[in-house]
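Bug #77: duplicate submission created two jobs. Keeping one. Sequence:
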Amino acid sequence: QVQLVESGGGLVQPGGSLRLSCAASGIIFSYYAMGWYRQTPGKQRELVAHISSGGSIRYADSVKGRFTISRDNAKNTMYLQMNSLKPEDTAVYYCNLYNTDHWGQGTQVTVSS
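Kept job's structure:
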């Protein structure tokens, strides 16, 4: 079955960096578009970044210029490099097989001094 496992979250100071990973199994990874989402308590889950099977990329306006999404099809893994982190980036981050109900378990990112 499809399995998505995120890693790389943690506590970081404002201005710092983190790199999230999403390891996929049970699918032919290269066939699928993937997305990173985030959610804070009381708010809807929002799309942070999306990468198509062909490598086309789009970002939420709030993270443009600071976050970079990428994928390594040989490793069945998607990444989110997050730089210049702000307290408002604090959330649980999820990876998603795009436009499906397949989600990872989430990884907490906390940006605080």
